[in-house]
Amino acid sequence: MFYFYLFFEFSVIPIFFVISRFGVRFERLQSAVYMFFYTLSFSLPFLIFLFSFDYNFKSLRFLLSKFVYISHLDYFFVFFSIFMFFVRIPSFFLHIWLPKAHVEAPSSGSMILAGLLLKLGVYGLMIFLDFGFFQINCFYEFYFFGGIWGSVLASFVCFRQSDLKKMVAYMSIMHIGICISSLFTFYSISIFSVISMIVAHGFSSSLIFYSLACFYERIHSRRIILVKGGLSVIPLYFLFLCLVVFSNISVPPSLNFFLNYFYLLV
Q1: Are 93 and 179 in contact (CB under 8 A)?
Q2: Which of 39, 64, 113, 215 is the most buried (most CB within 10 A)?
Q3: Following DSSP, what letter does each residue of 52-64 receive, concatenated?
Q4: DSSP assignment letter at 23
């Protein structure tokens, strides 16, 4: 578990350099500072939790996590350790760095950020739920309703965005809020649905950012008002964009649809 924590925190380094090195405005530095201090503030309670776990059970192996449900570890550090994963996911109330990072990062950086690195937070949260199940079970409703409320607020924020990249970033936050609420139901079907959602969302969100990069190369702007009437100018591009957006909302025959349908049958 300590190796997992170590390499999980090392994944901040490429994100930090992608955010801080690319872009031309001051917001890229502000985004990098937000992400750095969010990570620093909430990774320390997780490290203290690991030390406490190792002190009580003399091991940090993953296999031991199934047998510590009745442990009485510190509720305070378990409560705040979860926010380390919320920063990386990110959840709505710790999301400020993500839209700024997507706006300032290049298209390749946005694709890697949305398709791979942000999914580490969901994976780490799934692993951590076994270690702190006894403590989390006392206040899981806080995280459950927080994920739903965050998804609702992120969807409202999408309505007033004029920048297409920021809109897609808030769409990702909205999807991840549903994943957070599903994980804290502690049902097996919810775990399967979260896995299918993050896998399919990794492909669809990366394709959306790629299509926005193609749009920016042709129009030199990401304003949503310029999309109006674009079908008559570049029809093949807008056909591709529509197919990508349909895959993001699980329209058949997209990967989202088949994965969700498969786990529904299971």
Answers
A1: no
A2: 113
A3: HHHHHHS---GGG
A4: -
Nearest-CA neighbor of 257 among 119, 266, 265, 248?
A: 248
Encode pLDDT of 14-54 as tens digits: 777 777 776 556 667 777 777 778 777 888 888 888 887 78
Rounded to whole angstroms, the Cα distance separating 232 from 236 reads 10
DSSP, residue by residue, 249-266: TT-TTSHHHHHHHHHHH-
For the chain, domain boundaries: 2-265
Contact 170, 161 (CB under 8 A): yes
pTM over 0.85: no
Residue 98 amino acid letter: L
197 touches 181 (CB < 8 A): no
pLDDT digits (tens, 9 = 90+) for 68-120: 555 566 777 778 888 888 888 888 888 777 777 777 777 777 787 777 777 88
Q: How far apart are CA 45 and CA 43, in angstroms?
A: 6
DSSP letter string, 194-220: HHHHHHHHHHHHHHHHHHHHHHHHHHS
CA distance 96 to 110: 15
Which residues lie across from 163 on neighbouring strands? Answer: 223
Whether the Cβ atoms of residue 222 and residue 165 lie closer than 8 Å to each other: yes
What is each CA distance from 65 to 8, 100, 121, in whole angstroms?
Answer: 18, 37, 19
The Cα 20–Cα 8 span in angstroms is: 20
